[in-house]
């Protein structure tokens, strides 16, 4: 089994990718999405949840409602996030640890447990804090090329360039003690 992760600047880009993955019959249970809560991906309660297939009493706006395990969590350093799919249980444990008074390693450890290097996890965590959306897919090895192509059809963020941009602006690594509400979430590189 392989895990493939990509970062997209917008929720809409990520949902385009999720739709493509679902169209290729990648099981919903193998697709995870993590994004800061926004008007585009607001989670709501209601009867629509059952129809959308989320199974946990929530509906996710913007096209991912039928993905498994839609949830809203508060993660230290990220604030309120929307998460779907298999990665939710990892994040829920992280959120529970925060409520209990301590998060051992935090979001970076959660991301490294899914196969990212520590350096990659730091950049992904910072990008999510700044409004990016991460899509992670687990598949059998024989589907690697298919999934890679589907993920890259909508150009993902170049992680090396994004890390350099962050470092050029004074960033030294993801800091879960920062209050995401006061952090400059608009600091993304110019397009192109």
Order of helices and strands: EHEEHEEEHHHEHH
Radius of gyration: 16 Å
* Shape label: globular
Distance between the termini: 34 Å
Please report the total strand number as a whole number. 7
Share in β-strands: 15-25%
Q: Could you say which structural class the secondary elements and strand pairing correspond to?
A: alpha+beta
Helix count equals 7
- Please, what is the average pLDDT? 76
Structurally, the number of domains stands at: 1
How would you sum up the major sheet?
Answer: 5 strands, antiparallel
**What ranges have pLDDT less than 50 throughout 5 or more consecutive residues?**
45-63, 98-104
The neighbouring-strand order within the major sheet is 1-7-2-6-5
Description:
Helix 4 packs across helix 5 and helix 5 (118-129) crosses helix 7. The protein has one domain. The chain has helices at residues 11-23, 48-52, 88-99, 106-113, 118-129, 144-153, 159-168; strands at residues 2-8, 31-36, 43-44, 59-60, 71-75, 79-84, 133-139. It is globular, with a radius of gyration of 16 Å. Helix content is 36%, strand content 18%. It has 192 residues and is of the alpha+beta class. The chain has 7 helices and 7 strands. The chain has a 5-stranded antiparallel sheet with strand order 1-7-2-6-5, with helices on both faces. Strands 3-4 form a two-stranded antiparallel ribbon. The relative contact order is 0.21.
């Amino acid at each position: 089994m392989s895990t493939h992760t990509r970062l997209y600047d917008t929720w809409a880009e990520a949902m385009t990718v999720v739709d493509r993955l679902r169209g290729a019959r990648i099981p919903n249970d193998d697709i995870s999405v993590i994004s800061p809560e926004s008007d585009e991906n607001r989670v709501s309660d209601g009867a629509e949840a059952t129809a959308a297939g989320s199974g946990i009493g929530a509906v996710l706006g913007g096209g991912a409602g039928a993905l498994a395990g839609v949830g809203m969590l508060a993660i230290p350093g990220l604030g309120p996030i929307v998460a779907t799919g298999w990665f939710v249980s990892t994040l829920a444990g992280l959120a529970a640890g925060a409520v209990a008074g301590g998060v051992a390693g935090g979001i970076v450890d959660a991301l490294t447990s899914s196969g990212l290097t520590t350096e990659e996890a730091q950049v992904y965590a910072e990008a999510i804090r700044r409004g990016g959306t991460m899509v992670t897919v687990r598949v059998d090895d024989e589907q690697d090329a298919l999934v890679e192509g589907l993920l890259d059809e909508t150009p993902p963020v170049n992680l090396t360039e994004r890390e350099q941009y962050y470092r050029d602006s004074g960033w030294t690594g993801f800091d879960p003690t920062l209050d995401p509400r006061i952090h400059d979430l608009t600091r993304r590189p110019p397009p192109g």
